[in-house]
Amino acid sequence: MRRVKKYNTALIGFMIGATMPVLGYWAIEVIFTTLTESGVMDEVTSSTFTKRLKTLSLLSICCNLLPAQIANNTRHVELLKGVILATLIYAGLWTMYFYFGIRFF
Prior knowledge:
Blueprint (H helix, E strand, L loop, with lengths): L9 H28 L11 H14 L2 H9 L3 H22 L7
Helix pairs in contact: 1-2, 1-4, 2-4, 3-4
């Protein structure tokens, strides 16, 4: 009989998938701010706030690759489904916001 792992649920995966981009956005924003304050990125991002926001958002969505890969390697299929669902929702919202101009707030 196959043993079901305790945290192998889609709900836990969705919570992880919804949290990782937020933490990734914060970490990447700290890195960008540090580089800007040190003078490395001043010339690059001086007039392109929208491009910087697009980049930050997309990189933060890509932070879900790490938990998705870990779930895949450990054969947590249900957990992986939740992470991928959250990633697809974030990617869809990113596309609607930046390419179709649909503002949510």
